[in-house]
Amino acid sequence: MSVVVAERAEDERILLIKLNRPEARNAVNGQVAREMAAIMDELDADPALRLAILYGEGRGFSAGMDLKGFLEGDFPEFEDRGFGGFASKPPRKPLIAAVEGFAVAGGLEMALACDLIVAAHDAKLGLPEVKRSLIAAGGGLLRLAQRIPYHVAMELALTGDPVPAERLYQVGLLNRLCEPGQALTQALALAAAIVDNAPLGLEGSKQVMANAADWGLAEGWVRQEEVARHIMNSEDAREGATAFAERRAPVWQGR
Questions:
Q1: Are strands 102-104 and 77-78 parallel, antiparallel or unpaired?
Q2: What is residue 101's three-state secondary structure?
Q3: Which residues contact 152 (CB under 8 A, 6 or more apart)?
Q4: What is the spatial distance between Cα 199 and Cα 107, in angstroms, rounded to a whole number?
Q5: Which of 37, 181, 205, 234 could share a disulfide with 85, CB 3.0–4.6 Å?
Q6: Is 10 among the catalytic positions?
Q7: CA 110 to chain centre
Q8: Separation CA 176–CA 190 (nearest Å)
Q9: Can 129 be counted among the known catalytic residues?
Q10: CB-based contacts of 209: which residues, under 8 Å, 6+ apart?
Q11: CA of 178: how far to CAs of 53, 98, 114, 166, 173, in Å?
Q12: Can you tell me the distance from the alpha carbon of 114 to that of 163, in angstroms, rounded to the nearest whole number?
């Protein structure tokens, strides 16, 4: 049985990716990582897909690494894509996390590997690795340090205690808060505000934003120019300008 299920949304430009181990709180094992990596490859390769939404089956998003599997030598990583099949190498296309219930340890790290996060207001998020003599090495420490205030990030890392979604929304980690049971619906609404935009523009914008902190300002200007030049010389850039002049909706080709 597949432990990660991918299907097209009603808008077939959106891919819905479901963590499907509810009996194990959607814990991540080697099979999850392998299947997720294959789905991320599919997302990037299919020109009909604009973005994806990641969510969990059952009561929560994910409890992180399958500790029973870990003790048996089953590691939740896949080649260069890393933890969960994408944490160290996310897809080129935008990815939205829809969090219900809990996203802890590697579950939070997968949410942080997404570009946007929608969460139910009663959800709990945290990095409890220190309670098991581990560290959040799937990107949690690296990404939190860049995205929220230092002392808030350090509290999550050092106490290991879960933090209410409302608190993380206040410090800017989450894009939307919603009623319990509505995270996927709200993620689809957020996706609808994105999906009509030009695919090259989406991928290029993500590429620059995701790498800006690592590049630094001087290198960033050079790298951004490379991305921008490629997009400005594309057929879609000409189509965007033409559609604007003709007062019609553009027809994107992704080239």
A1: unpaired
A2: coil
A3: 171
A4: 28
A5: 37
A6: no
A7: 6
A8: 9
A9: yes
A10: none
A11: 16, 10, 18, 10, 14
A12: 19
pLDDT (tens, 9 = 90+) of the chain, 255 residues, equals 899 999 999 999 999 999 999 999 999 999 999 999 999 999 999 999 999 999 999 999 999 999 888 888 888 999 999 999 999 999 999 999 999 999 999 999 999 999 999 999 999 999 999 999 999 999 999 999 999 999 999 999 999 999 999 999 999 999 999 999 999 999 999 999 999 999 999 999 999 999 998 898 999 999 999 999 999 999 989 988 998 999 999 999 888
Q: Sort strands 116-120 and 95-99 into parallel, antiparallel or unpaired.
A: parallel
The pTM of this model reads 0.95
**Active-site choice (129, 155, 179, 239):** 129
Amino acid, single-letter form, for residue 6: A
Pairing of strands 77-78, 82-83: antiparallel
In this structure, what token pair is assigned to residue 24?
A: 């194990």
Which residue type, as a one-letter code, is found at position 91? Answer: P
d(CA 9, CA 58): 19
Among 109, 166, 179, 203, the active-site one is: 109
**Cα distance between residue 118 and residue 174, in whole Å:** 6
Q: Provide CB contacts within 8 A for 15, sequence distance 6+.
A: 6, 7, 8, 9, 39, 42, 43, 49, 51, 52, 53
Residues in the chain: 255
What one-character DSSP code corresponds to residue 121?
A: T
Between CA 15 and CA 22, with CA 20 as vertex, the angle to 5 degrees is 140
Tokens of 100: 């219900």
Cα separations in angstroms, 160 against 81, 124, 130, 147, 157: 25, 12, 6, 18, 6
